Amino acid sequence: MNFIRYKLFNRRIISQYYYNFLDYIYFKSPETQKLIKKGFYIFEDLFPVEILDLKKYIDYKNFDFAADRKRISLTDLKTIYYKLNSLGVFKVVKEYLGKDLLTYDNTILTLGTKKSKDGSWQPHHDSKGRRLKIYIWLSNKNLNTHPLFYKKGSHRNIINWKKYEDTRFKYEEDFEKIYGNLGNIVMFDTHGIHSSHKENIVPRSVIELTIESKGFLKRINNTNLKDETIKLGCIELDKLID
To answer: What residues does each domain of the chain span?
Structure first.
């Protein structure tokens, strides 16, 4: 009975099939269609990084670490989201996730000069269901930096997992290696398999934003919305782009 209930009434399993069904019956823009197919999308327009004072978040004299995150101030966050909205980024986000959206994990992520094989660096999916991360590259393109590894199409194939080990994978040669250039906006579904061991030591930085929808069939729903909002520091997307 527990097995049947798990298979037939599991919120995350139903949600995956629900999304896959909607992708086929609703018209999507070309950008969103590419995101649906591959699991990631690189926008043509560049983000004007000069509108931010990056020295508040990046110590250009010290990269003696594997990775470092700095929380973005609310003032800068509104500037970032307002500009992304003007570039049409959230039109794609809403076509992909829906309109009732939350954002959190709004940081500047810098990868330093130390290598790492910690568990968080091995190929994985984030076990959160369908959600998006946006990377805005703050460094010039350099093939000696750590890329964003992504297994194209894997976001559509992972339906069920029970424990942490089920979310970890081995590196495969067909992983896409995404090297952003200064101002590139890269969007990817964290349900797909991404990242790999950090073997490179040339620093690079990105603005990292996480977007997730809430609702009855979603991971964040009425039963846990308050707790998740407190834990993650969620902000309603529309409050940042209005």
So the answer is: 2-241
Q: How far apart (Å, rounded) are the C-alpha atoms in residues 30 and 50? A: 29
Rounded to whole angstroms, how far apart are CA atoms 129 and 155?
A: 9
CA 5 remoteness from chain centre:
30
Q: 197 in helix, strand or coil?
A: coil
pTM of the model: 0.92
- State the Cα–Cα distance between residues 100 and 24, nearest whole angstrom: 21
What pLDDT is recorded for position 10?
Answer: 64
Q: Where are the beta strands (DSSP E) in the chain?
A: 40-42, 67-71, 101-111, 132-137, 148-150, 176-178, 185-189, 204-213, 235-236
Selecting from 2.40.400.10, 2.40.420.20, 3.40.50.620, 2.60.120.620, what CATH number does the domain 2-241 have?
2.60.120.620
What is the DSSP track for 128-162? S-S-EEEEEE-S---TTBPPEEE-TTGGGT-----
pLDDT in tens, 34-90: 999 999 999 999 999 999 999 999 999 999 999 999 999 999 999 999 999 999 999
% of the chain surpassing 90 pLDDT: 76
Q: And the tokens for 235?
A: 């902000």
